[in-house]
């Protein structure tokens, strides 16, 4: 298997991307192809020891930045590392594509170049959500589709379940629909309809869930539109860091015996690492015809390494094919409404 | 001024309601009328010392529970403590009404009995959102309207600003619109239109805000639809308690010197109290013709006491009248679109 990575996307490219690639390569046998400015990437690679036959550079002269309008950029920057990388994935030059670049452009490139899996109306971003002391849930959609129809939410549930089972090894993952209350007739019309569709599906649907229960790990796959998903992900990030910062200040005000302060500081670090996105790898774009993973824009080498390692089963375990096979069941449910 | 309180609403009624009333009464000169089952409330009052002329009981034979369908309950349970209390407010028997009962029924009673302020399309629940170490923001709407039109969001901003200024003493409160990014053309159509309306308003609008910045206190009034508001409020509650619980476990594993553990435990309690809704008082229903405050269903005596104390300026500082006076400007903005 070959892994393709966008060498130029993200705040810390190419230095942290290259370092992460070298670190990951040391742990696996797969080839990794870095797409981007040959000279810059070569200069970074020169800093490390690695097997020349394992890490290769595919030159791309252009870059899509976060300021670029996604659709326009994908259409016009044909020689950008992102477009070239996705084209390489499409043509069979690799089985997994990873980028820390412009999220909208990654989605657009996935849609225009790879195309949607037939029968999937809206691809979605699936982000891992850290459950303190208990692993992760999967949040689908975490930002691709601000407004959704009931069938989109059904698709998110099905695709998220498949990913959770095939990649994160959770058997019969439970699925919850984020709503304002747990009663089945709660919330906006679109959620009532989605509840009905999900109840008929073969996913392990547990019903409506409230936002307060998300951090407790109430279910494996958290289904919501991309706006709500974005709010859940960003609020969690903001609040967790804020609490930890405040605690650190409270605990380092000089009143604690030194040993106690040190011990505490290590406990806080443990907790911080549980919230650290770089430990969890990236977020797959589910519903396009290929294994595409987006990383956080500020990914460091550790995040890059983990995204590569955790992305491998996504490509190897036939997730895309399994989603394709599930589409028939979804269509039956939607049409029967 | 007279304060009317629903003696029967909430998980801890009437005992904690009565205790909170007695505690608040000792600090103020206003009369407090408790509406509910006379015998039960009398039995609770008998446990305390208080001025007989300050606390009075208004008998109501019925109760609206959380299992009641709100609209039906308000229509049919005419002698419930909630309906009787709101009727008393309407007829001038008091200037402030407080209840820890069924939120939907409080909204329905406000709408049907008091009525909307003319020109306000949708009343909203405004909840205080704790900003660690920095006071509070006001979240409008925090759950009354799952789906909103742009003009509703404009109304929430205007009403929230007036409440923040008149009741929480914040001069020229800043207003932010929750969106998926800070650029003005972000997000669903309804938010783009709301951004345009807000830009034309006399509120101190700072633009779109992201959920990650809400816990940092990025603005005084956080505007969003009731679904998003519900997610923000509940996720914050769930995550904060989860983090604190985990920290408590980490810090009480026996490895710390006893003095350190005690000190830590007190620091955690400080933080916990910052998240404790019972410190902040209740949530006003903005946009109905009267000062109505809803409390958390699980309110204890402390929450009741604080809600009474913090509710007084809501009734005394002409918030309802000021909202009424602002409607003309809002209508001009909406019509000019």
Automatic annotation (TrEMBL), chains A, B:
<dbReference type="InterPro" id="IPR003664">
    <property type="entry name" value="FA_synthesis"/>
</dbReference>
<dbReference type="InterPro" id="IPR012281">
    <property type="entry name" value="Phospholipid_synth_PlsX-like"/>
</dbReference>
<dbReference type="GO" id="GO:0043811">
    <property type="term" value="F:phosphate:acyl-[acyl carrier protein] acyltransferase activity"/>
</dbReference>
<keyword id="KW-0012">Acyltransferase</keyword>
<comment type="similarity">
    <text>Belongs to the PlsX family.</text>
</comment>
<keyword id="KW-0963">Cytoplasm</keyword>
<keyword id="KW-0808">Transferase</keyword>
<dbReference type="Pfam" id="PF02504">
    <property type="entry name" value="FA_synthesis"/>
</dbReference>
<dbReference type="GO" id="GO:0005737">
    <property type="term" value="C:cytoplasm"/>
</dbReference>
<dbReference type="GO" id="GO:0006633">
    <property type="term" value="P:fatty acid biosynthetic process"/>
</dbReference>
<protein>
    <recommendedName>
        <fullName>Phosphate acyltransferase</fullName>
        <ecNumber>2.3.1.274</ecNumber>
    </recommendedName>
</protein>
<keyword id="KW-1208">Phospholipid metabolism</keyword>
<keyword id="KW-0594">Phospholipid biosynthesis</keyword>
<comment type="pathway">
    <text>Lipid metabolism; phospholipid metabolism.</text>
</comment>
<keyword id="KW-0444">Lipid biosynthesis</keyword>
<keyword id="KW-0443">Lipid metabolism</keyword>
<dbReference type="GO" id="GO:0008654">
    <property type="term" value="P:phospholipid biosynthetic process"/>
</dbReference>
<comment type="subunit">
    <text>Homodimer. Probably interacts with PlsY.</text>
</comment>
<comment type="function">
    <text>Catalyzes the reversible formation of acyl-phosphate (acyl-PO(4)) from acyl-[acyl-carrier-protein] (acyl-ACP). This enzyme utilizes acyl-ACP as fatty acyl donor, but not acyl-CoA.</text>
</comment>
């Amino acid at each position: 298997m070959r892994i393709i990575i966008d060498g130029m996307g993200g705040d810390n490219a190419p230095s942290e991307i290259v370092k992460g690639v070298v670190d990951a390569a040391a742990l696996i046998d797969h080839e990794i192809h870095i797409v981007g400015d040959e000279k810059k990437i070569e200069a970074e690679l020169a800093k490390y020891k690695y097997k020349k036959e394992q890490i290769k550079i595919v030159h791309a002269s252009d870059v899509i930045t976060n300021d670029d309008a996604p659709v326009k950029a994908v259409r016009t920057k044909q020689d950008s590392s992102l477009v070239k990388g996705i084209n390489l994935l499409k043509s069979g030059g690799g089985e997994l594509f990873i980028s820390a670049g412009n999220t909208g452009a990654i989605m657009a490139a996935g849609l225009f170049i790879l195309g949607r899996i037939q029968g999937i109306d809206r691809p979605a971003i699936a982000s891992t959500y850290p459950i303190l002391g208990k692993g992760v849930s999967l949040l689908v959609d975490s930002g691709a589709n601000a407004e959704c129809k009931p069938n989109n939410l059904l698709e998110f549930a099905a695709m998220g379940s498949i990913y959770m089972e095939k990649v994160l090894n959770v058997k019969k993952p439970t699925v919850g629909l984020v709503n304002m209350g747990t009663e089945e007739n709660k919330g906006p019309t679109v959620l009532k309809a989605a509840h009905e569709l999900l109840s008929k599906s073969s996913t392990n649907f547990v019903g409506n869930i409230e936002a307060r229960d998300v951090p407790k790990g109430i279910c494996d796959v958290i289904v919501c539109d991309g706006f709500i998903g974005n709010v859940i992900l960003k609020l969690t990030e903001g609040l967790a860091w804020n609490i930890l910062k405040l605690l650190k200040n409270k605990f380092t005000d000089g009143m604690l015996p030194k040993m106690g302060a040190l011990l505490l500081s290590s406990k806080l670090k443990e907790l911080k690492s549980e919230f650290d996105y770089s430990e969890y790898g990236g977020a797959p774009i589910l519903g396009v015809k290929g294994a595409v993973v987006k990383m956080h824009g500020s990914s460091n080498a550790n995040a890059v390494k983990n995204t590569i390692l955790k992305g491998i089963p996504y490509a190897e375990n036939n997730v895309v094919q399994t989603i394709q096979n599930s589409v028939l069941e979804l269509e039956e449910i939607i049409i029967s409404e």
